[in-house]
Design brief:
The protein is of the alpha+beta class. It is 34% helix and 29% strand. It has 14 helices and 29 strands. Strands 12, 13, 14, 15, 16, 17, 18 and 19 form an 8-stranded antiparallel sheet that branches. It has a 6-stranded mixed sheet with strand order 1-4-2-3-8-9, covered by helices on one side. The radius of gyration is 30 Å and the shape is elongated.
């Protein structure tokens, strides 16, 4: 496999540019060519001319690509000229498709692409690009990842040449899409792909909640206040023409699938914030900031991992917000690490980065994605020396004031978060049993009930320790507390991992178990009842429990209060009819 990077100076005629590409192809007969192009102007006529010319000039060359992002601030810069990466595959191949999403949804496009993918073997990775900020390609990603969960998907959402307008485009051969998706499946037994993902931003200050958002990336309210207030309050920023300069270096960060991801606000309307993808209502997020050294240290580490991989090609998809924070010189240094690994490495910037694998969580902002490609085994003679940057090592001299301030804020944030977590634990948990308390259970019940789909169900169980008042009267409250903890131990040892259990009252406990059927719930309750009955609680002679069980689904037609009444009545029946037993109550019995 080989890679060639070519920059098309606009003063250079397209014909000589094409001749240069043709010469590389002719120097490598038998190789399969693929050309990725990134174009900064967004000039449709110019792009169309170049693509149409290429279709006539080349016999078997596939060209795909996107428009790149302009600079976010006046004092930083973006690429001025089109940049192409010519990939030549010796033992591998590709399958490419473009979709006009005026006519088809991303999910429908994903299903069509999966049908095509079923005809190939040894699928190793998928490059994808999309255009139109309001078109989320998440549906396309979901369809592919559902069918091919172990295949990485990487690329970008196309950028625009002017911040005030979304002029993003993707293209394939002679077709240009202002609202579309282009996907390239890379396959071959000898093809190896290694991908690294670097964020570098860290949360600062308190966590807030997205309380109103829309599927197309609009955040309307944060903590039930107009969304823009988050910038007014914490950054002293007003809504004006300097929006990107003031906010792009402070992305939102939050956890998705146990991965920290960034979201950069791209625009605003009144008090609403526009992002390149949806931030779901209920998301807990923080503003974030980074030091230049954090960003550079992460990408340097990734570049050195690619040194060991010995790539024959490197594709990079990076966020322009990194350049806003670091400035042109340090941002160029970030790319230079990878040039030292492969002199023809090629990078592009868009509205967002795409990475779906064990590291990435789909649609990303603020990140640096480096993709190494190689056919066959690594060739030791092509391996370069590890890259060293002494400028990012810990300083033994005076630490810059900004670094000291950021360090102070980071560690203060960490301390505050620890304190908040401790207070949350105290406020939401019973101190004796460490189970959730009644208020916390109320919250989790609402959340789990909302998550039920039309075919889903969950079980609710309520436990009560039989004759517990006698235990306290005869043996004292200390022994009574030990009995309670012993019963809780029996419950915890038997319930499924997804269950939510709370202390409902003195000797009463309640739980919900998502996805558990009537039979499974009764069997679990019986298991717990028998476990308690067979456990020694010396000096107490014998301890038993009574249990009420119900099942819940979207067709119960009962509100929360009636469901609690129902499970309580099942427990009451168990106690009134002999205790030490399990009673199931159907929802139509209320």
């Amino acid at each position: 496999m080989k890679q060639y990077r070519i920059v098309l100076d606009r003063a250079e005629v397209v014909e000589s540019f094409a001749a240069q590409i043709k010469a590389y192809i002719e120097q490598n007969p038998g190789y399969v060519p693929l050309l990725q192009a990134v174009e900064p102007s967004g000039d449709i006529a110019y792009i169309q001319y170049g693509l149409s010319f290429a279709q006539e000039f080349f016999q078997d060359l596939t060209i795909f690509g996107m428009t790149s992002h302009c600079a976010l601030t006046p004092d930083t810069h973006s690429a001025k000229f089109p940049v192409v990466s010519l990939l030549l595959f010796e033992k591998s191949n590709y399958l490419v498709q473009g979709y006009d999403c005026h006519d088809i949804t991303p999910s429908e496009a994903g299903r069509e692409f999966c049908t095509q993918l079923s005809c190939i073997s040894d699928l190793k990775g998928i490059i994808m690009m999309s255009s139109d900020l309001t078109l989320s390609p998440q549906g396309f990603i979901d369809e592919i990842s559902d069918h091919y969960p172990d295949v990485p998907i990487f690329g970008a959402i196309a950028g625009t040449s002017a911040l005030s307008k979304d002029l993003s485009l993707v293209f394939l051969n002679d077709k240009i899409f202002d609202r579309g998706i282009v996907a390239v499946a890379l396959y071959g037994k000898e093809l190896n792909i290694e991908i690294h993902h670097d964020l570098g931003w860290k949360p600062l200050g308190r966590q807030f909640t997205i309380t109103s958002s829309t599927p197309d990336g609009i955040v309307k309210e944060i903590d039930n206040q107009p969304a823009f207030n988050i910038y007014r309050k914490y950054l002293g920023v007003e809504a004006n023409e300097y929006f990107f300069e003031n906010t792009s270096a402070f992305p939102f960060v939050y956890k998705k699938d146990n991965k920290i991801i960034g979201r950069v606000a791209l625009n605003y309307t009144n008090n609403d914030l526009q992002f390149a993808m949806n931030i779901p209502t209920g998301t807990k997020a923080s503003l974030a900031y980074a030091k230049e050294k954090y960003l550079l240290a992460g990408t340097l580490k990734s570049a050195n991992k690619l040194v060991d991989f010995v790539p024959e090609a490197i594709l990079i998809y990076a966020c322009m917000s990194r350049r806003t924070l670091m400035g042109d010189q340090l941002a160029d240094k970030e790319f230079s690490y990878f040039d030292q690994v492969n002199a023809n490495s090629t990078w592009s910037c868009g509205f967002a980065e795409i990475l779906y694998n064990e590291e990435g969580a789909g649609l990303l902002n603020g990140t640096f994605i480096s993709v190494g490609l190689r056919e066959g085994n690594a060739k030791s003679e092509n391996k370069v020396k590890p890259i060293i940057d002494n400028d990012i090592n810990p300083s033994t001299t005076v630490v810059p004031l900004n670094d000291r301030l950021i360090n102070f804020l980071e560690h203060t944030t960490a301390d505050l978060n620890d304190n908040v977590m401790q207070l949350f634990e105290m406020a939401s948990h019973d101190q004796l049993t460490h189970l959730f308390n009644r208020d916390a259970f109320d919250y989790w019940f609402d959340k789990k009930y909302e998550e039920l789909d039309e075919s889903g169900n969950m079980a609710m169980v309520m436990f009560d320790i039989d004759h517990f008042k006698k235990v306290n009267d005869i043996y004292g409250h200390d022994i009574g507390d030990e009995v309670i903890k012993g019963v809780v131990k029996s419950i915890n040892e038997s319930i499924p991992k997804e269950a939510i259990i709370a202390r409902w009252g003195g000797e009463e406990f309640i739980g919900i178990m998502p996805g558990v059927t009537k039979k499974e719930a009764i069997d679990l309750a019986e298991t717990i009842r028998k476990s308690v009955e067979s456990t020694s609680f010396a000096p107490v002679k014998k301890v038993t429990i009574s249990v009420g069980v119900i099942t819940i689904n979207k067709y119960n037609c009962l509100d929360k209060r009636n469901l609690f009444t129902l499970v309580d009545s099942a427990l009451y029946e168990a106690k009134e009819t002999g205790r030490n037993k399990v009673v199931f109550r159907a929802t139509n019995s209320v």
